[in-house]
Amino acid sequence: MNGKGVDETRPEVHYEKVVPMTKEDVLEELVTHKILQSPSLTRAFHKVDRRDFVASHLAAEAYADYPLPLGFEQTMPVPLAVAFMLELLLPRPGERVLEIGTGSGWQAALLGYALSEGVPPERYARSPAVVTVERILPLSEIAKENLRKCAALPKGVVHVVAGDGMRGYAKYAPYDRIISTIVTSSVPAAWKEQLRIGGRIVSPNEDVIEVHDKLSAIDYNTRAYHGLGFISLEGEGDAS
Questions:
Q1: pLDDT (tens digit, 9 = 90+) per residue, 132-165?
Q2: What structural domains does the chain harbor?
Q3: Closest CA to 132 of 90, 97, 94
Q4: Report field, pTM of the whole predicted structure over 0.90
C-alpha cells in the first residue's frame, strides 16, 4: 500500500524579499509562527550561526529571507525553508541522518547539533550522526571548512562526502532519516534501500515537500506539503 495525500494541518508559507533580518529576528518569527517547534532544533538555530556558512561579503545578509548565492550556480535556501523541512524530518538525538545536497554545510551543522545533544562524544569516533553528500567538489570542500570552524559541533559528528547524492551513501546505512535539498521527480531507489523500516525521507518534488514514512521494505506512507518553492533541477539544485 502506498498512501498519498496533501496535509492541510500546516498553513501555506510565503516569503517576500525584504530588508535583511538578524538571527534574533528570524528565530522570533519562526517560533511565533510555529514553523520552528522542536526544542532541540530551536537550540540548534540559536547555537549554529548562519553567518559562519556564507561568504564574508554576504555576512550582513546571512539571515535575509531570500536565497543567497553559494557559487557554482547554487543557492542557499532561506532559513524558513530549512526550519520547515527539518521540523518535518523530526530528527532525534542519537539517530543517523543522510543529507543530499550539502551546499554551505549549514543545514548539516543544524542537524549535527540537534542529533548529538546528550550523546557521548566518543560515539562519533566510530560513525557520524550526519552523512552529507555534495556532487560539486569545490563546494564540498567549502562546506568541510565551514563545518571545521563550527565550534558548536563535536568532532566527527558530520561527515562530508563528494559524490552523486542520487546514489545515497551505503557505507553508513541504514539511516533513520534522509533529507534532500534537491528537487527530484521521484525518490531514488538507493535512498529507499538505505532507509531503515520506520524511517523517514523528506524531499522536494516539483512545487511540494514530500514526507515518505517507510512502513515495510516496500510500503510507504506519503504526505505532501505546499507553500515552499525550490529550484527544479533533476540531479542537484538548491543547496543548504
A1: 999 999 999 999 999 999 999 999 999 999 999 9
A2: 2-226 (3.40.50.150)
A3: 97
A4: no
Element (H, E) at 45: helix 39-47
* Angle formed at CA 9 by CA 196 and CA 216, multiple of 5 degrees: 20
Residue 122's φ and ψ, nearest 5 degrees, are -65, -20
Q: Tell me how crowded residue 174 is: count the other CB atoms within 10 A of its CB.
A: 16
Parts of the chain with a pLDDT under 70: 1-20, 227-240
Are 181 and 238 in contact by the 8 Å Cβ rule? The answer is yes
- In the three-class reduction of DSSP (H, G, I as helix; E, B as strand; rest coil), residue 209 is classed as strand
Backbone Cα Rg of the chain: 16
As given in the structure block, the three cell numbers for residue 47 are: 547555537
Would you state the cell numbers that stand for residue 4, as one nine-digit string?
Answer: 498519498
